[in-house]
Amino acid sequence: MSDAAQIGVAGLAVMGENLVMNMADKGFSVAVYNRTTAKVDAFLSGRAKNKTISGFHTVADFVASLERPRKIMMMLKAGEVVDQFIDQLLPLLDPGDIIIDGGNSHYHDTMRRVASIEDRGLQYIGTGVSGGEEGALKGPSIMPGGTSSAWTAVEPIFTAISAKVGDNEPCCAWMGSGGAGHFVKMVHNGIEYGDMQLICESYHLMRELLGLQADEMQPLFAGWNRGDLSSYLIEITADILAYKDDDGSPLIDNILDTAGQKGTGKWTVDVALEHGIPLSLISESVFARCLSALKDRRVAASKILTGPTPAFSGDRESFIAALERALYCAKIISYTQGFSLMRQASDEYGWDLDFGSIARIWRGGCIIRSAFLDKIAQAFEQEPELANLLFDSYFSSQVNKAQQDLRNIVAAAATQGVPVPCLAAALGYFDGLRSSKLPANLLQAQRDYFGAHTYERIDKSRGEFFHTDWTGSGGSTTSSTYNR
Fold it and tell me: Distance (Å, rounded) from C-alpha 180 to C-alpha 185?
């Protein structure tokens, strides 16, 4: 029996270490490398002791330890670090060897790397890995894409280490060519931003408007986790609200209200603008984090700017029930926007993304895992070409039933001065989408007035453009037409 390792992992930060442990626990032999060699030694003498894990201090020895075709998974910080490590690998590899990027790389970088690596006769996979450190150890959701011929070589490992749902169904599936895997992971993270902010706005309404304490909110979120909102993020919210600080007070009350971010949410918003997809809810979730980071400025503004002091006088139980329905409605709209972005990119790049499969592999392991994803999978299984999630009968019926609750919650927040940017964005998208007429006719007239950008007429065929000399002195020369 060969002593060669079945796969190599470069990068022993928390995600890398945990993935290696996961692989070893599933019966695979793993070679590891880290630029800081002390980490390799500490890992081998600690968690990896007596496991089918071998460690190396040089890239050359690391590569030489692998069975062929070599499978090398990088768990490195996105950006130049990945390119630099690839440059170290290339002289040591043979045709057919596989390089795998398991970090949060930008999909454009992955597309570039796939093309470059394939030109050298090698294979490249860019894979999203979601689930945090616990998921990496116990089973993440895995979203690989890139060189399609490489999938058969890594599929046994990836499916074995992934989370399992239902009848032992792996939360891992091939996404498509090029940067498809990292694109899907990026959108996953954007949806995650939206989910988290919606939950935070619901918590904020309970606290600021209803005056509820953490101990009072905890059973409410725990109850929501037994219904339509059942999800990992709702579950951990209930856990967080129950957690006590050293002095017995709720720890949540002692945490500074400034949020961090690593960039994938911003990337999702950038890409939505690039492709012309209204991603308003997820965009607002990113901006909410940006605003939270301006803590000193907000404290200063609170002493200058005035507004209502929240004071609730209605029925608390009815409000909380409406809030639960409004949150579910907004969650549907958030996922609608995310899947619309993936469809647009899939069409543009020729990825042929399987949206039902994406929903299924997100049901376990990943941060946005929830029972709700079963409904999305069913919607795309019934209609693979579904243009918009709200066109599905289940989701349209749900938002139609809950839209009044969403209106009432957003209205209460507005009149009481409690910021709910994502809940409001959900309502704005819903009303915009259901409007057969929007005021863009005036907007296009304005563009034609000052820039001669032309417009279309309701009494003419689409694609026929007109210009008006609005002032009588502009002439007939026109600028470019507009992109629909």
Answer: 9
For the chain, the distance separating the N- and C-terminal CA atoms, rounded to the nearest angstrom, is 61
Closest CA to 117 of 161, 87, 79: 87
Question: What is the distance between the alpha carbons of residues 222 and 117, in angstroms, rounded to a whole number?
Answer: 48
Contact 394, 375 (CB under 8 A): yes
Total Cβ atoms within 10 A of residue 223: 14
Q: Which two tokens stand for residue 429?
A: 């998208």
Residue 290 predicted with pLDDT over 50? yes
Amino acid 483: pLDDT: 61
Which long-range contacts (C-beta less than 8 Å, at least 24 apart) are formed by 77-85?
A: 77/103, 78/103, 78/104, 78/105, 78/106, 78/109, 79/105, 79/109, 82/109, 82/113, 83/109, 83/113, 85/10, 85/59
Give 441-458 pLDDT, tens digit per residue: 999 999 999 999 999 999
Q: What is the mean pLDDT of residues 235-257?
A: 97
> Catalytic residues, which ones?
185, 192
Query: In b/e form, how buried is each residue of 451-468, taking b as 16+ CB within 10 angstroms?
Result: ebbbbbeeeeeeeebebe
Query: DSSP of 315-378, one letter per residue?
Result: -HHHHHHHHHHHHHHHHHHHHHHHHHHHHHHHHHHT----HHHHHHHTSSSSTT-BTHHHHHHH
- More confidently predicted of 177 and 482: 177
**Separation of CA 1 from chain center:** 42
What rounded mean pLDDT belongs to the chain? Answer: 95
Q: What is the pLDDT of residue 293?
A: 94
Contact between 200 and 171 under an 8 Å Cβ cutoff? The reply is no
Kindly give the pairing relationship between strand 71-74 and strand 123-130.
Answer: unpaired
Select the more confidently predicted residue: 481 or 186.
186
pLDDT tens-place string over residues 215-229? 999 999 999 999 999
pLDDT of residue 263: 77
What is the arithmetic mean of pLDDT over 257-282? 91
Q: In which element (H, E) is residue 72 found?
A: strand 71-74
The position carrying tokens 């890239």 is: 59
Backbone angles phi, psi at 72, to 5 degrees: -120, 115
Quote the CA–CA distance of 158 and 136 in Å, as a whole number.
11
DSSP 460: S
Handedness of CA 379, 189, 126, 360 (dihedral sign): negative
